[in-house]
Structure prediction request, 398 residues.
Amino acid sequence: MFFDHIEAAPADPILGLTEAFKNDPNPEKINLGVGVYKNEAGQTPVLESVKQAEKLILETENSKSYLPITGLPEYGRLVRELLFGDDHEIISSKRAISCHCPGGTGALRIGADFIKQQNVSATVWISDPTWANHYQIATAAGLNFERYPYYDRATHGLAFDRMLETLSQAKEGDVVLLHACCHNPTGIDPTIEQWEQIADFLKEKKLLPFIDFAYQGFGHGIEEDAQGVRIIAQRCPELLIASSFSKNLGLYNERVGALTVVCADGATAEKVNSQLKITVRTAISNPPAHGEKIVTTVLSDPKLRALWEQELSEMRERIRDMRVLLAAKLKEAGAGDFDFVVEQNGMFSFSGLNKEQVESLKKEHGIYIVGSGRICVAGINHANIDALVKAIAAVVRN
Ligand code: LMR
Prediction:
């Protein structure tokens, strides 16, 4: 038999929670696990800008033929403009190329495969904690990885000194995986000054930045959230960026993202592009079109673009409001000081709850959060917040 030795694998730490949630008969259950935005009514609706773009696409689409291996040039240009701004030198000098990938995960995997193919001995340095899939993607690509400290439990802040101290062990040519904004799972981002120090450090140590940019627009705004990427790009001539439109356009199941590779000059970028075509061709052949068409239509039509920016800021503001309310209600309930939740960015809050507390939230209260204590604040609303606060207050007291 070929398969009889196979052992059952553990459930995915994030998506596995959604499965467990669906199977839970508790009518009061609340899913604050997976990073998916929900509105005040607890739904994840299709954005209006996306709906309107889809109507236009339906009317004008006249072929389902293959896309080019790395996607359409127009899509790549729009991705780079979101990253760097319209008139950035990186764009005019044509020293960056973008490759349309299936989601942010696809972009990370294509990037990791590319790194492995071009520099087999590179170690990837990944923050501790991070999105659990980062470790798996590096491993699947055959890359060695090491962890650098990121979170300081005592201050609920960034362990900045320890981070750089650990990264000083990296050797020239190693890769440092960073989160552009809304760090997953902690919600803690470097300040502008810290980004500058990180950029100088990477440049001096000749380390290659690989930036996961899954939440552009969920921290402080589209431009504001790109500051870290732009500072790194100012100092470091080469970097990779994995973009995702799952969250900011709500295109979760369309799997649309991009890998952008910035090179020192245009001639190198062309060579990198030729290699990436092989990486993509052997992994997925060529990318799926529907999500890309939506992104291109929304970003290039001024009316839809304005509508999207409005919808994105509404999502961001709603999450911020929930942070403030959650911290206030937890204090009121005597659960302790959770003011740090207000300082965190994006969909997630690293609550500080331990494994046992997370487990009793699930078993005793039907509330699902990630094992690390990560709460998806984007799933909280006025209807479920009191149950959540009551449950957290009960588990922290035990
Ligand atoms: C998350 O961290 O919850 C999201 O990025 C969804 C996922 O794929 O894990």
In short: The chain has 15 helices and 13 strands. The chain has a mean pLDDT of 96. The longest strand covers residues 96-101.
